[in-house]
Amino acid sequence: MLQKGKKLYGIIHQRCPACHEGSIFEEAAYFDIKKMGKNHDACPACGQDYRIEPGFYWGALYIAYGFSVFVSLFIFLLFFLIFGLSLNASFFLLVIADLILAPFLYKLSKTLWLHLFVRYHHPSK
Q1: In the chain, how many domains are there?
Q2: What is the pLDDT of residues 108-118, one digit of tens each?
Q3: What does the DSSP assignment read for 48-91?
């Protein structure tokens, strides 16, 4: 079971890497193109600055690329080799799956990138 204070909890639930309380993104929606990738300037709970430096989130593109290549290969092989669909049908389903998964992978990569560089600070009691 995931618990607050654990790195995996913060990544999966898109929470602040410093406190695991505040949300990273302004909107939880995945398919609202205008709002899906906008993050807060700072954590609403602890004030951790999410604007580390100009261009900081460019590194998340590498993570998103790696995720999308892995998922694409898995989906293509699943449809083509396991289910025995034709090459064209497998490619068509791959494109549909990539379009559906793109917003999720985008948010996941930004969250993971931020968690790689900001440490968790246990709240003092």
Answers
A1: 1
A2: 999 999 999 99
A3: -BS--STTGGGGHHHHHHHHHHHHHHHHHHIIIIIS---HHHHH
Prediction pTM value: 0.84
State the residue range of the domain holding 43.
8-117
Read off the tokens for 60. Answer: 């998340």
Tell me whether residue 63 is in a domain: yes
The predicted-structure confidence for 31-65, as pLDDT tens digits, reads as follows: 787 777 788 999 999 999 999 999 999 999 999 99
Is residue 125 a part of any domain in this protein?
no
**Burial of residue 122 (number of CB atoms within 10 Å: 0-12, 13-18, 19+):** exposed
Residue 84 amino acid letter = G
Tell me the C-alpha to C-alpha distance, in Å, between residue 12 and each of 20, 32, 74, 107.
11, 19, 21, 10
Domain assignment present for 124: no
Identify whether 80 is part of a domain: yes
Report the alpha-carbon distance of residue 62 to residue 122 in Å, rounded: 30
